[in-house]
Structures are given as C-alpha cells and as structure tokens.
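Example 9 (inverse folding). The structure is encoded as follows.
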C-alpha cells in the first residue's frame, strides 16, 4: 500500500470510528431510556436493565457499521476534494481505481464485522434478551415489589400503596408493605370469577422448597361467583397465597431471535425473509460504499458537503426499499426469489456502476466523440 493509500485509509478509519462511537452513544441512550421506562412500569425487573442494554449492542452495531463507513467515506474523500488534495493526487498518477481499492478493503473489513453481527451475534443477543424477560415473567423471585407500582404475576396484579421502610422492598423474606391491593383475573372457560383482595399489610416468605408465599394480614376479599351470579365477601386475619411460576410465557418466538442455522431450514415466508435480510446486509456495504465514492468527488468551490443530501437520500431509499421487500415477503405479497437480493442488484446497476464509470477515460472519450460528431 502506497503512502497516499495509507493516508486515505487512516483518515477514513479515524472518521468511521468517531461516527460509529457517536451513533452508538445516541442509540444506546435511547435504548437505555426505553428499558428504564419498562422497568418503571413493572414489565421488567430493574436488575435486568444493564444486562438487556449490553445485549442490545450487537443489534445496534449491526445497523451502525454500514452507516458509519458510508459517512466516513463521504466526509473523508469530500474533504480531500474540497481542499484540492485529490487534484494533486491525480496529477502524480493516483488513479480512481487505487482509491476504490482502498475503499473496497475498508468495506471488506466492515462487511466481515457486519456479517458476524447479523448472522450470529445479533440473533443470539435477541434470543438471550427474550430468555431473560421470559424468566423474569415466569419467576416471581426476580421481581421487585415496590410501593406505588403495579406488579403483574401470572393472572394477578398487585399494587402496594405504602412501603414501610420508605426505600423500596427487596424480594427475599421481606415485609411487603401496607395497604395492599390484589386483583386476580377470572377464567370464564373454567367458570372461575375474578377476585379483589385488600389487606392492611403483608410479607413475602420462602418455604424450604424455595417456593414464594405472599402472606396477607387483616384483610377482606371480594370474590365473584359466576354460577350463582353474586359476590361473596369474606374477611381474614391471615391469608397465605402461593405465588406460582408461569409454565409458558414465551408466546410466539420472534423470527429475528432465531439462529441462522435454524433459518436455513425455514418453513415460513417470514423466516425466509429474515434469512435473506441477514445475508443482504454485508453485501449492501459494498454496494453503498462503492456508490458513495463518486458522490464524494466534489469541486473545491462546491464544498465538502455539496453532495451530502443526494448521498443520504440514496442510502435511506436503499434501506427503505429493503425493509419494504422484507415485509412484503413475510406477508407473502412478494416472491422469495429474487426477494431482497433485488435491492443490491438494482442499485448496483442503476447507481454504483454508472456513477463510477462517469469520470473514467472511456466515458470521457465516448462523450468527446459524440460532441465532435454533433459539431461536425
């Protein structure tokens, strides 16, 4: 690699790393806020926020890697052109092909990282996230019982009005609080009515088999009797309730959480679309990065951001087109083949190849011949 190539390579890598770090910081902050809001609502335990956030990194990196390289090439080459450095490079024999070789090498490295994320790390992290969330929903021992918050356990909803310690309750053999309200949803198929229980105080305890028991004291219960079409009211001094563990809370598995190996045996259109999307992502890096090189070539008088808007519009349209085809395949409105592979092929033929040929010697001679023929 020549000195000029190393210079362009280092400058582009530095810019890519800076853009990637900024983008990851922004999206990590948004994801952190989303997980914190879910924890406040009681849908996930507070203790899982950090783990879920760290597991989101591969999925976010999967989307940030192509964008960071795209912008890095756009800014770096645009800066070289705006400062007339590219003119000097060409005058000493540094051709566009050598520039494309450097950019292609950067795209290759980024594509390998992107492929590891899209094919392996991102699906694994999403599956791990679902596993942690489902475990939290099925295992009441990981839920924190805090005042002023609704806690959902199986078919019951618990609300604690006052925390006796004033600083939050743990979930291990602790005094639960005062003024506790419990709503248990009925089952119409089994003709079991809903129940509302009010208690002045309560506590959480574990027996020798590590089963969680909710002990309520000095309360009243309102039970709906479906068959009798009336309500039964009963009072109690002490009431022990076994908090059950859910047997199946996973529901429908997300296609994006399935491993790539499973998707190769895909049976549904949604799984086929997901597999195509994972394969297309690394390919897209080559198409978009080689496309942005000619868009980065600007006149020094135009400034480095002269073609920034068209480049970003092409980038956004590429992924919108890909997402649209993915959704159409999943809904069985579009054929699996060519499927999402149509996007990189189409953009290569319409944008990447024509734009890179535009400033070549062959095209210049062809245009010169046409101009000469018209003048004659």
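The amino acid assigned to each position is listed next.
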């Amino acid at each position: 690699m020549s000195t000029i190539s190393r210079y362009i390579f280092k400058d582009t890598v530095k810019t890519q790393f800076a853009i990637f770090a900024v983008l990851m910081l922004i999206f990590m902050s948004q994801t952190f806020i989303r997980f914190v809001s879910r924890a406040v609502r009681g849908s996930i335990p507070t203790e899982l926020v950090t783990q879920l956030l760290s597991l989101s990194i591969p999925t976010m990196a999967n989307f940030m890697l192509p964008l960071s390289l795209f912008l890095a090439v756009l800014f770096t080459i645009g800066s070289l052109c705006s400062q007339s450095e590219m003119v000097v490079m060409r005058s000493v024999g540094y051709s566009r092909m050598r520039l494309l070789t450097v950019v292609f090498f950067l795209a290759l490295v980024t594509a390998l990282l992107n492929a590891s994320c899209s094919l392996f790390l991102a699906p694994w992290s999403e599956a791990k996230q679902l596993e942690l969330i489902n475990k939290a929903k099925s295992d009441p021992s990981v839920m924190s019982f805090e005042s002023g918050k609704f806690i959902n356990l199986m078919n019951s909803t618990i609300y604690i009005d006052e925390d006796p310690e004033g600083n939050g309750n743990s979930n291990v053999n602790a005094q639960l609080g005062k003024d506790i309200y419990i709503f248990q949803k009925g089952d119409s198929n089994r003709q079991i009515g809903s129940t509302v229980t009010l208690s002045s105080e309560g506590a959480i305890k574990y027996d020798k088999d590590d089963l969680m028991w909710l002990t309520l004291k000095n309360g009243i219960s309102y039970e709906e009797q479906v068959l009798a079409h009336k309500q039964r009211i009963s009072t109690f001094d002490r009431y022990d309730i076994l908090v059950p563990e859910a047997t199946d809370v996973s529901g429908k598995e997300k296609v994006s959480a399935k491993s790539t190996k499973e998707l190769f045996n895909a049976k549904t259109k949604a799984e086929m679309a997901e597999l195509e999307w994972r394969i297309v992502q690394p390919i897209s890096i080559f198409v978009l990065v080689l496309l942005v090189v000619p868009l980065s070539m600007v006149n020094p008088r135009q400034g480095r951001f002269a073609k920034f808007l068209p480049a970003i519009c092409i980038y956004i349209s590429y992924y919108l087109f890909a997402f649209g085809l993915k959704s159409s395949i999943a809904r069985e409105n579009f054929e699996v083949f060519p499927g999402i592979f149509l996007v990189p092929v189409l953009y290569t033929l319409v944008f990447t190849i024509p734009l890179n040929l535009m400033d070549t010697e062959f095209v210049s001679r062809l245009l010169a011949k046409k101009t000469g023929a018209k003048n004659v």
